[in-house]
Amino acid sequence: MNQILAEFTHFFPVWDTTRAAGLTSYLLLFISIVTGITQSFKSIHPKKRKTLNLIHESTGWFGILFGLIHGLVLMFDYDITLSIGEILIPFTAKTDTFSIGLGTLSLYIMLILIITSDYMKKIGVKLWRTIHFLSFPGYLLGLVHGIWLGPDTQKGLISLLYYITGIVVGGLVLWKIVCPRHSPKQTIQPKEEGTINS
């Protein structure tokens, strides 16, 4: 078993892998949030809205996938040595307990959003919309997790990336709240493969 782990870490250095997967996951979830909000604006053409929705769904799924890789690969780190339980159960890690817990909660929230979207027809649009408001705190938790725990945050460009993306999402959310007239009152038709519109 140790030999297998050694081979794995040789081709995929744990620290580099978890950093790359974490940053990729964050950027994908950022795109998912932005496209989810943007497609609700009345000025968006229906054809463009379909394209935005496709991007919204795809980046959401891949963001969760890379988020899982980001966390689970730490089981192979000999320095940190986090167990599967510490990775999957929020606030149980023996190191950076709070920061890691925020990242785990963010991942679970995004997973809940996707699952409930797939079962929109069964749970009803009203409940689905209510649950979907979790996308904003879920994104915020991921952002704080990256800023506090990400080793690349000290680098100027990465730090700038976090703050710019955070401002963009915050601005879009504020725009929806202050100017609701820009969002069409459209009826969402439940379907087998739901969306995770924000």
Summarize the structure.
The protein contains nine helices and no strands. It is an all-alpha fold and 198 residues long.
Task: Walk me through this protein's architecture.
By secondary structure, the chain is mostly helical. It has a single domain (13-182), classed as Four Helix Bundle (Hemerythrin (Met), subunit A) (Up-down Bundle), CATH 1.20.120. Helices cover 70% and strands 0% of the residues. The protein contains nine helices and no strands. α2 packs antiparallel against α3 (46-72). The longest helix is centred in the first third of the chain and has 27 residues, at 46-72. The chain is globular, with a radius of gyration of 18 Å. The termini are far apart.
- In terms of structural class, how would the helical and strand content be classed? mainly alpha
* Residue share in β-strands: under 5%
Strand count, sense and barrel status of the largest sheet are:
none
| CATH topology call | Four Helix Bundle (Hemerythrin (Met), subunit A)
> What is the ordering of alpha helices and beta strands?
HHHHHHHHH
**CATH C-level class:** Mainly Alpha
Radius of gyration from the CA trace?
A: 18 Å
Write down the overall geometry.
globular
> What CATH architecture do you see?
Up-down Bundle
Question: What are the segments in which pLDDT stays under 50 over at least 5 consecutive residues?
Answer: 181-187, 192-196
Can you give the mean pLDDT?
Answer: 84
Strands, total number: 0
Share in helix? over 70%
Query: What is the terminal-to-terminal distance?
Result: 44 Å
User: Oligomeric state of the chains?
Assistant: single chain
Q: What's the total helix number?
A: 9
Q: How many distinct domains?
A: 1
InterPro entries: Fe3_Rdtase_TM_dom (IPR013130)
Pfam families: Ferric_reduct (PF01794)
GO cellular component, one term: membrane
Keywords: Membrane, Transmembrane, Transmembrane helix
